[in-house]
């Protein structure tokens, strides 16, 4: 599944840098539960952005050359960007309440990294520009600060949005792993292309996460049962209509169970433990 390439090392270096930022933040800050929800919410937001810009509009292409399959490789690069590099940085900035001078330094940092990756042919742009990245991050970093503030205040809309985004991001991550290991494919017709798969799968993840959070948010035990059963029914309908292929039905059964468990955990964590943490401090 893997191949030798020097392309992967810059991605690994960035992974180490941003992981260090996140670990330092969690070590120094007291509101670790709130920061964890902030992080997972950012991952979900990042996936929505990447699905629109990368999957649908073909703005750019990542070239880590870790997987032989170009689409898996490209999406893996997107996951590193939207689930690690940018969210870890945003949590660091918001956790330490850094002001605009620090934000400008990070904006310059990402601008330099993106241009360097283009020069080293680790990242290829089509109609996208590094200046667009700077513009979006200039909006995202203050949004992160406000999201963190409202989480601490227990804002109902932000709590609900965080619950959905945490669940949706987890759903998309699990489905990506299932695709890597050959247990999950989506598309049309007899032959499913990877392009089709990565167009359909995010929409599938959005819907499954909506079903799961909707029923679990409304009711505990009955909601878990409803979310599990309806999720399986959706899989069965997609399979019968020819939009879904699975090698092992039991694995999909287990995936739905894991997602119901994770959503239940998110529900307790976000609506109870986050409130308790912010009441203490």
Automatic annotation (TrEMBL):
Keywords: Membrane, Transmembrane, Transmembrane helix
Regions crossing the membrane: 6-24, 36-55, 75-97, 126-145, 157-178, 198-216, 225-243
Protein name: Uncharacterized protein
């Amino acid at each position: 599944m893997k191949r030798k390439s020097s392309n992967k090392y810059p991605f690994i270096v960035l992974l180490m840098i941003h992981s260090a930022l996140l670990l330092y933040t969690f070590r120094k800050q007291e509101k670790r539960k709130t920061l964890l929800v902030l992080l997972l919410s950012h991952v979900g937001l990042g996936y929505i952005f990447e699905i629109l810009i990368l999957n649908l509009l073909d703005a750019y292409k990542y070239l880590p050359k870790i997987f032989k399959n170009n689409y898996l490789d490209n999406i893996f690069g997107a996951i590193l960007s939207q689930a690690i590099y940018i969210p870890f940085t945003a949590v660091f900035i918001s956790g330490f309440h850094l002001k605009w001078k620090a934000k400008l330094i990070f904006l310059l940092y990402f601008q330099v990294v993106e241009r360097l990756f283009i020069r080293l042919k680790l990242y290829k742009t089509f109609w996208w520009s590094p200046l667009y990245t700077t513009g979006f991050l200039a909006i995202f970093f203050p949004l992160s600060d406000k999201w963190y503030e409202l989480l601490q205040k227990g804002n109902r809309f932000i709590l609900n949005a965080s619950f959905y985004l945490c669940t949706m991001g987890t759903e998309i991550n699990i489905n990506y792993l299932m695709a890597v290991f050959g247990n999950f494919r989506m598309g049309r017709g007899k032959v499913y292309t990877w392009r089709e798969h990565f167009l359909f799968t995010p929409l599938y993840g959005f819907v499954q996460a909506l079903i799961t959070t909707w029923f679990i948010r409304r009711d505990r035990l009955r909601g878990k049962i409803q979310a599990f059963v309806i999720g399986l029914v959706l899989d069965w309908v997609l399979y019968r209509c020819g939009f879904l292929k699975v090698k092992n039905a039991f694995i999909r059964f287990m995936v739905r169970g894991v997602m119901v468990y994770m959503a239940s955990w998110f529900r307790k964590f976000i609506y109870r433990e986050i409130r308790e943490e912010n009441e203490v401090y």
